[in-house]
Amino acid sequence: MSNVKSALTIAGTDPSGGAGIQADLKTFQEREVYGMSVVTSVVAQNTTGVQAVHHIPVPFIEQQLESVFSDIEPYAVKTGMIASEEMMRVIARVLEKTAAAYVMDPVMYAKSGHALMGEHSRDALKTYLVPLAALITPNVPEAEELTGMTIEDETAMKQAAKRIVQEYGAKAVLLKGGHMEGHEAADWLYDGNSFTSYKAERIPTKHTHGTGCTYSAAITAELAKGRSLQEAVQVGKEYVTAAIKYSLQLGSGNGPTNHWGYRLQSVPAQGELHNGIY
Ligand SMILES: Nc1ncnc2c1ncn2[C@@H]1O[C@H](COP(=O)(O)OP(=O)(O)O)[C@@H](O)[C@H]1O
Ligand SMILES: Cc1ncc(COP(=O)(O)OP(=O)(O)O)c(N)n1
């Protein structure tokens, strides 16, 4: 296996560059790992929402996976949008055979509310992919879908995380608190033994397109570099918080995260932002 640390994302696309594979590859690049991608669905979307979806035929997803894995074995893999049970089965067959750390972002909806996973595929996600994952990163609505629980406070967040590990066989769960109320954006990691919280000040912005993709991709990149799960989540949290803090006023909806945000934190105060970005 090459010493070059590489990460693979298996996910849908966003031609406006804020979410999906485009966000994942930007994150991999910024976190200094070699990024690769397998496309599951081509999504016509932008900062205002999803306009249309074209699913890649399952045999062609299989072909892309074969092209990558027969040539470059990734150190870590993340999955994002996987729309159907058939896609999940093909992806699971490949992930069963790899030693790569696997991070699953169980993407069900875009922030606009558009469904990105078929309703009937949620059980299949639990059957085929959850048991293979080193980490699952649901937001609160996704954790509610997975567990059937109503999650309104941190106690319920922790109960849901525990249930996903104990009942569905996940190795670890990071339940993200972006959808909760309060002055902190608090996420809870449960690794089967104990809980760790990752908290940051809630930033008052509507420009949060692609936050979940950015976060899980940053964690995946850090796992590819050999960091522990706790360290990888810590770096991921710092990365996504900075990406939200410096998020971009692009488009007429929810603007995207800024992948230079992490670097900007350590730069002394500047005057004009260059190109509105850094
Ligand atoms: N306004 C915000 N300020 C700071 N952190 C946020 C904000 N919104 C979300 N986050 C953080 O961004 C990450 C992604 O969370 P979340 O929005 O829950 O996921 P998703 O994008 O999958 O819906 C989490 O770490 C969450 O705490
Ligand atoms: C192709 C694709 N995958 C995932 C998402 C969801 O992205 P996420 O980071 O959870 O947040 P939003 O951008 O939906 O706010 C997506 N939109 N497209």
UniProtKB/TrEMBL annotation:
Keywords: ATP-binding, Kinase, Nucleotide-binding, Thiamine biosynthesis, Transferase
Entry GO MF terms: ATP binding; hydroxymethylpyrimidine kinase activity; phosphomethylpyrimidine kinase activity
CDD domains in the record: HMPP_kinase
Isomerase in keyword set: no
Pfam family for this entry, one: Phos_pyr_kin
GO-annotated cellular components: cytosol
Domain Pyridoxamine kinase/Phosphomethylpyrimidine kinase: 14-258
EC numbers on record: 2.7.1.49, 2.7.4.7
Catalyzed reaction equations: 4-amino-2-methyl-5-(phosphooxymethyl)pyrimidine + ATP = 4-amino-2-methyl-5-(diphosphooxymethyl)pyrimidine + ADP; 4-amino-5-hydroxymethyl-2-methylpyrimidine + ATP = 4-amino-2-methyl-5-(phosphooxymethyl)pyrimidine + ADP + H(+)
Protein's UniProt keywords contain Metal-binding: no
Pathway: Cofactor biosynthesis; thiamine diphosphate biosynthesis; 4-amino-2-methyl-5-diphosphomethylpyrimidine from 5-amino-1-(5-phospho-D-ribosyl)imidazole: step 2/3; Cofactor biosynthesis; thiamine diphosphate biosynthesis; 4-amino-2-methyl-5-diphosphomethylpyrimidine from 5-amino-1-(5-phospho-D-ribosyl)imidazole: step 3/3
Single GO BP term: thiamine biosynthetic process
Gene3D superfamilies: 3.40.1190.20
Family of the protein in this entry: Belongs to the ThiD family.
Identification of the protein by name: Hydroxymethylpyrimidine/phosphomethylpyrimidine kinase
Organism (species): Terribacillus aidingensis
Organism classification: Bacteria, Bacillati, Bacillota, Bacilli, Bacillales
